[in-house]
Amino acid sequence: MIAEFSAALSSAKAVADIIAAGKGVIDQAKLASAVMDLNSKLLDTQGAAMRIQNESATLQARVHELERAANERSAWTAEAAQYTQTQISSGLFAYVPNDAPAGSAYMGLPKYCCACFEAGGKALLQQEHVTEGRMLALVCPNKHPRLVFRYAVNRPRPVHRRW
Ligand SMILES: [Zn+2]
Fold first, then answer.
1. Same structural domain, 71 and 136
2. Residue 25: inside a domain, yes or no?
3. Are 86 and 96 in contact (CB under 8 A)?
4. Residue 31, domain extent
5. How many angstroms is it from 33 CA to the middle of ligand 1?
6. Is residue 114 part of a domain?
7. pLDDT per residue over 74-104, tens digit each?
8. If you measure from the C-alpha of residue 116 to the centroid of ligand 1, how many angstroms do you get, rounded to a whole number?
9. Is residue 91 assigned to a domain?
């Protein structure tokens, strides 16, 4: 843009020099050539300005997109902080609310799929009875592998030590 603008200024100066040097008698061919050169340089400058305007619009759109993504990420971080990945049966994990009362059974709490949670979303696990072996299963609505178990453990009660 700066190069195009400088070239246009040089051409304008050349036109002005031709007019000033003529002192009433102007070489029309030289003047026409200088004016055409000036027009060409002005078009180059206009093109460069339009390219800069387009690049600016693209960059502004990208900034808005990144701001939106950052806001979403921030909202999810605040939401996710209200849950903890917890072992609800032997070797079986899910996200459960932090504010569930201590000692309550995990069976009665909403439980969320770890894979979905770590991908940035909550998917409520639904319980199913497995007909063989009297087992239970937690099923993710997003088709992650179901979690099969015999029984859920209780939330640990806070430890009160006596010294
Ligand atoms: Zn899932």
1. no
2. yes
3. yes
4. 2-79
5. 72
6. yes
7. 999 999 999 999 888 888 999 999 987 766 6
8. 4
9. yes
CA distance 128 to 148: 9
CA of 71 relative to ligand 1 center, distance in Å = 23
Q: Which one of 20, 47, 79 terminates a domain?
A: 79
Q: Encoding tokens for residue 123?
A: 């998917």
Cα of 121 vs centre of ligand 1, distance in Å, is: 9
- Using one digit for the tens of pLDDT, what is the confidence trace for 113-136? 999 999 999 999 999 888 877 888
Domain final residue, candidates 29, 49, 79? 79
Mean pLDDT of the chain: 86
pLDDT for residue 111 = 93
**How many A from CA of 24 to the centre of ligand 1?**
86
Compute the distance between CA of residue 153 and CA of residue 109 in angstroms, rounded to an integer. 12
Residue 133 DSSP label? G
Band the pLDDT of 160: cuts 50, 70, 90. low
Half-sphere exposure of 143 (CA within 13 A, CB side): 0
Residues 57 and 93 both lie in one domain: no
CA dihedral 137, 88, 142, 132 (to 10 degrees): -10
Considering the domain architecture, whether residues 69 and 14 belong to the same structural domain is answered as: yes
* Inside any domain, residue 70: yes
| Ligand 1 centroid distance, CA of 95 (Å) | 11
| Nearby residues for ligand 1 (ion, Cβ within 5 Å) | 113, 115-116, 123, 140, 142, 144
- 111 Cα to the center of ligand 1, angstroms: 11
Expressed in angstroms and rounded, the spacing between residue 144 Cα and the centre of ligand 1 is 5
pTM of the model: 0.61
More confident residue, 68 or 104: 68
